[in-house]
């Protein structure tokens, strides 16, 4: 498994190094790099989406966004979340190829004219550091109390506070790595902020770290937990293609990591018994991660998808770099609005489109509701697993093209 993890990590870092400098951190900045790798055939690997990013708009910035920018400005620019969006662009481009009867690496049209995934295809996620939120609450081991045979996973107990009342970590742990992500306000469990291991409570959904005004976006741990349940294709694409799940999650080397915390953050805290991805830490690390002289988060992002045209974009503050509030410019190709446009183009071409109305007549939000099987699964997950998942402000999704 480590071999595979290192192979994937190296491939992603090589791809990153091959991209031009614009949008990458300067010498005193750090960033997070995430990426999705396609595995096909026996051992053929290729990067299909790759992004960097550390920023997230505050609730105020988001809701004060001008009407024309609704659906075009990104609220969440953490690398993991951008990577899923860049991956959606890749999927749309692959769907377009198969509908034009051209070669697609991952899809085929079956006898009934439905799009299916080729056999032997799998997707693997790489991220240069542990996702923010619950997964990042990691015990720091006090080695002076250990007998030399210590393994963190043996000693640290986690109890879901919904069923019991305590966080339990072994005596060997007197401190934890912290996350800046704050518990959502509708959860009765809130951080204790006591020194050492009692700083955080484990289990609740959290909003993204950020100074000042709180963000409306959930932490990456929470969002990845959602992908594990409903897939990474999202509701719109569920109208065309089967669910796509990540088979492996690989975290870069030399960063705080614990398999126990990852498993807790991604599924154990929700008591869900779904098919779980393999989780592994690679021994290869990302050069531009936080540490040493790199103490400031890089404000810009690079967004790359394996598509024939306009594969690379640079973003800042949720917009294309260079555009401002006064001069919005072209919207990012991974924004809701641009992705919705790709969706409409596919609808026009796809004879098996399940939409009863032409999507131009309905809003983005309403289109998503047509994806019955996806919505059913997500609704069930919200009732049974993610009980207090907050919804995005409707006004950001209520747009037509
Ligand atoms: Zn994050």
Walkthrough of the structure:
The chain has one domain (2-135, 214-396). The chain is built from 10 helices and 18 strands. It has helices at residues 2-18, 59-63, 79-99, 152-155, 220-230, 234-237, 259-266, 336-349, 364-369, 372-384, and strands spanning 29-30, 33-40, 44-52, 54-56, 76-78, 107-109, 115-117, 122-127, 138-141, 173-177, 182-183, 206-207, 246-251, 278-281, 296-297, 300-305, 312-316, 319-320. Helix 3 (79-99) packs parallel to helix 8. It starts with a helix and ends in a 17-residue tail after the last helix. The structure holds zinc ion (ZN). Zinc ion (ZN) binds next to loops. The site of zinc ion (ZN) has 6 residues, from loops.
What's this model, at a glance?
With about 400 residues, the protein is α+β, with helices and mostly antiparallel strands.
Report how far the terminal alpha carbons are from each other: 45 Å
Strand order of the largest sheet: 14-13-8-2-3-16-17-18
Strand content: 15-25%
Number of strands: 18
pLDDT < 50 stretches:
145-168
Share of residues in helices: 25-40%
Q: Tell me about the largest β-sheet.
A: 8 strands, mixed
Counting H and I runs of at least 4 residues, what is the number of helices? 10
Mean pLDDT: 87
**Structure ligands:** zinc ion
Order of helices and strands: HEEEEHEHEEEEHEEEHHEHEEEEEHHH
Question: Given the helix and strand composition, which structural class is it?
Answer: alpha+beta
What's the structural domain tally?
A: 1
- Rounded to an integer in angstroms, the radius of gyration calculated over CA atoms is 21 Å
| General form | globular
């Amino acid at each position: 498994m480590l071999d595979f993890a290192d192979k994937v990590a190296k491939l992603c870092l090589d791809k990153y190094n091959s991209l031009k400098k614009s949008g990458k951190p300067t010498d005193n900045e750090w960033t997070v790099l995430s990426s999705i790798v396609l595995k096909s055939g026996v051992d053929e690997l290729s990067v299909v989406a790759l992004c960097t990013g550390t920023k997230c708009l505050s609730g105020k910035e988001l809701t004060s966004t001008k009407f024309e920018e609704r659906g075009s400005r990104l609220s969440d620019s953490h690398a993991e979340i951008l990577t899923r969006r860049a991956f959606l662009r890749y999927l749309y481009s692959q769907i377009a190829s198969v509908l034009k009867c051209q070669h697609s690496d991952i899809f085929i049209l079956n006898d009934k004219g439905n799009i299916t995934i080729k056999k032997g295809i799998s997707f693997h996620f790489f991220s240069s550091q542990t996702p923010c939120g619950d997964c990042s609450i990691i015990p720091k081991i006090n080695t002076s109390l250990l007998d030399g045979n210590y393994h963190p996973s043996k000693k640290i107990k986690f109890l879901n506070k919904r069923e019991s009342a305590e966080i339990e970590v072994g005596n060997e742990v007197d401190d934890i790595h912290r996350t800046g992500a704050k518990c959502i306000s509708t959860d009765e469990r809130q951080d204790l902020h006591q020194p050492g291991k009692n700083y955080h409570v484990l289990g609740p959904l959290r909003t993204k770290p950020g100074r000042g005004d709180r963000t409306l976006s959930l932490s990456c741990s929470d969002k990845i937990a959602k992908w594990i349940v409903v897939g990474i294709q999202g509701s719109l694409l569920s109208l065309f293609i089967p669910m796509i799940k990540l088979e492996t999650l690989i975290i870069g080397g030399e960063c705080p990591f614990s398999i126990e915390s990852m498993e807790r953050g991604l599924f154990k805290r929700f008591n869900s018994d779904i098919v779980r991805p393999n989780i592994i830490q690679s021994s290869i690390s990302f050069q531009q991660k936080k540490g040493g002289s790199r103490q400031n988060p890089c404000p810009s992002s690079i967004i790359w998808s394996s598509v024939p045209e306009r594969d690379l974009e640079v973003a800042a503050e949720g917009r294309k770099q260079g555009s401002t509030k006064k001069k919005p410019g072209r919207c990012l190709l991974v924004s809701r609005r641009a992705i919705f446009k790709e969706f409409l183009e596919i609808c026009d071409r796809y004879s098996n489109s399940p939409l009863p109305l032409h999507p131009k007549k309905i809003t983005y939000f309403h289109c998503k509701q047509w994806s019955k099987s996806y919505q059913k699964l997500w609704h069930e997950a919200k009732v049974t697993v993610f009980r207090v998942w907050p919804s995005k402000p409707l006004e950001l999704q209520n747009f037509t093209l």
